[in-house]
Design a protein that fits this description.
The chain is α/β, with parallel strands linked by helices. Helices cover 18% and strands 16% of the residues.
Amino acid sequence: MTKIIFVTGTGTDVGKTFISALLVHRLKADYWKPVQTGLECDTGDTRTVSMFPTELTGWKPKLFPPRFQFKKPLSPYNAMEFESDIDIELEDFCIPSTDDLQNDVLVVEGAGGLFVPITKS
């Protein structure tokens, strides 16, 4: 049975990616950030997690690519205004299959804070 740990916070730059990376390596988990924003000024959180020094833990996690990526460093809802060809719907998300995981733990990192809007509705 897959265990999913969802990491969220009160907003942007509160340490979600740092905590996610620690959890990934401590629990020998894989990692997925379904929605990434701010790529015009940052390389993205999946890249940040990939740069964790694996020689410290001996674990190389499987990193699933974001389902949606936006250039603007805004909430996904607001970032969609600048990339009108993207319209997120909750049905667009599918958690990676257990068969695709290296272990039975997946760390999922949210975008922004707990109440950040993801869809237009």
